[in-house]
Amino acid sequence: MRIDIITVLPELIKSPFEASILKRAIENKLVEVHFHNLRDYTTDNYKSVDDYQFGGGAGMVMMIEPIDKCISELKSQRAYDEVIYMTPDGTVFNQQIANHLSLKGNLIILCGHYKGVDQRVRDLFVTKEISIGDYVLSGGELAAAVLCDAIIRLIPGVLGNETSALTDSFQDNLLAPPIYTRPREYKGMKVPEVLFSGNFPKIEKWRDEQSYQRTKERRPDLLDD
Ligand code: ADE
Prior knowledge:
The chain has helices at about 10-15, 20-25, 65-75, 95-100, 120-125, 140-150, 200-220, 220-225, and strands spanning about 1-5, 30-35, 50, 60, 80-90, 105-110, 130, 185, 190. It is of the alpha/beta class. The chain has a 5-stranded parallel sheet with strand order 2-1-6-5-7. The two termini are about 30 Å apart. The structure holds adenine.
């Protein structure tokens, strides 16, 4: 997989890719991530990427020209499966979308800033608009980092234990069950006895019940789907 991230603030998004699991995935060549600074695609002396809104109104709008130049250059080099625009008015991101995107080859992710991009960018280039939740961030960079993390960890070989992504919360529309490690008893609090039974079908059944209970209490909406 290859991900090209278009941004006016590359320094804001680079660090999550320089640590831990994402760093290792890049080093092991399971994914390539490239950052493109929109200011490198401007044509005026001021390197402007934004301008006033037609019709008036507070806030600047990202102009189409630098974005067109950047996306067109990338598309001249390879085919892309999706051009994703990070925006609070997009489809709300979830595990199902992460699973779907983790199977793609090449992705472009466009990070919005200010009031967002000129509508013609969305009409012309964007194939998917994604929000990471019903709140407004100061730019799309942190949202893009969240999206990339959720996608990249699903690529086969990225997580050490191949099965561990399959047992995450949400993978079957259920939250994950409680988990425990040593010590067996801490300040009077005991680990459930079933986990020491050695009876794996029984342990699986207990975990399934716990997942269901937790989902029913905390996220009953997931059980409706
Ligand atoms: N840009 C600003 N807020 C956002 C959000 N909630 N999701 C995606 N991109 C955003």
